[in-house]
Amino acid sequence: MSDSIIYMDYNATTPVDKEVLEAMIPYFSDKFGNASSEHHFGNEASAAVETARRKVAEIINAEAEEIIWTSGATESVNLALKGVAETRFKPGMNIVTSEIEHPAVLDTCKALSESGVEIRYAKPDRYGIVQPGEIEKLVDGNTLMVSVMTANNETGAIQPVPEIGAICLDKNVLFHTDATQAYGRIPVDVRSYGISLMSFSSHKIYGPKGVGALYVSRTALTQLAPQIHGGGHERGLRSGTLNVSAIAGFGKAAEISGKRMYDDFGKQIVMRDRLTEIFLRRLPHVYLNGHRSKRLPNTANICFEGVPASALIGRIRDVAVSTGSACSSATLQDSHVLKALGLTADRIKSSIRFSIGRMTTNEDIDAVTEKFIEEANKLRN
Question: In this predicted structure, what is the pLDDT of residue 1?
Fold first, then answer.
């Protein structure tokens, strides 16, 4: 990471932890075996894969065999939604989701709608939280599954996943949650939350890119059709030679996150609130998008009313922030998340997401707020 640039886009991706990198290196060269090969090198690789599977499962109270390796959260989402739809679809069936989901969910749902699946969208409240009652209204006897994220990538809003899970259990409907921003950052218990399927990724928790996982409960296992065929790997759900080095890194990242979660939470929430309060106190016409407290400990989505976010970011080249999801930035469209909250187009265009991480310091918070306040005042004047 450049010493001259302050990084505050940890919701987009995180740097690989040095311990994670060290855990990965042997599997590029010395321990290079294919995890499916039945000899010493293969057994060595397979042992690393299974150790990582156990570590990744442990922090969400899952069993190791309930973890399916994928290339990332997007693939996990596709396997979850398309896999269930392919297995259980009948004319008139529907999937219930929300308007604030990540493009991985929304685009997959759009593709399924073109195949005949009805998609029902729950609206969030003005704080970006999907109320359980809104989900319950949309679920009926023809609902294939419910998919609501655990925490929003743009506002950080934490969704009432346990309550939604309870509704799904009561109605005997599968519940998928995209936990990409929540996994390893806040406590998630797949059993007590009633989660059937959960997608998440390594690179949000200081692990490598290109590897993710799908938690599949025993109930959901028989209701999921594979989307990649060829060899029957991963309990027949996801064929392909396993990326052993990345998986080993994911396992190490999960282990570290499990140990550090509460310490990271405590430090980051203080810095997040410090950043938020400085902006709200020192600049007029500045607003926090989303809920004041029910959000990720590292995320603040700030609206600088009357100041185009693109212009503000363009003037501050030594701070890395974003206006929304990295996965949808290429479309140049207004944030669908902020639109769902009821923000006007002008306010959406004036909003910036600050997401902090393990390497963020109080000095970074002070430097960043000073830069943005100074440049926002210049642009307003």
Answer: 47
On the question of pLDDT at 2 being above 60, the answer is no
CATH architecture observed for domain 6-14+259-380 = Alpha-Beta Complex (3.90)
pLDDT the model gives residue 47: 94
Query: Helix 244-282 and helix 362-380: axis angle, to 10°?
Result: 50
What is the dihedral sign for C-alpha 250, 255, 260, 262?
positive
Tell me the two tokens of residue 237: 């759900």
Q: Enumerate the H helices of 118-239 as residue ranges.
A: 132-138, 161-170, 218-221
Mean pLDDT (the chain, rounded): 95
Amino acid at 79: L
Spatial separation of the C-alpha atoms in residues 304 and 80, rounded to whole Å: 38
- Give percent above pLDDT 70 in the chain: 97
Burial class (CB in 10 A: 0-12, 13-18, 19+), 363: exposed
Phi–psi pair at 373, nearest 5 degrees:
-65, -45
- Distance between CA 107 and CA 362 in Å, rounded? 38
Is 168 annotated in the active site?
no
Residue 142's pLDDT band (cuts 50, 70, 90)? very high
Helix (H) / strand (E) element for 102: namely: none
C-alpha to C-alpha distance for 71 and 212, rounded to whole angstroms: 5
Under 8 Å between Cβ of 299 and 115: no
Query: Residue 172 above 90 pLDDT?
Result: yes
Spot the catalytic one: 109, 168, 303, 327: 327
The architecture (CATH level 2) of 18-256 comes to 3-Layer(aba) Sandwich (3.40)
pLDDT band at 200 (very low <50, low <70, confident <90, very high): very high
pLDDT band of residue 325 (cuts 50, 70, 90) is: low
Domain boundaries, the chain: 6-14+259-380, 18-256
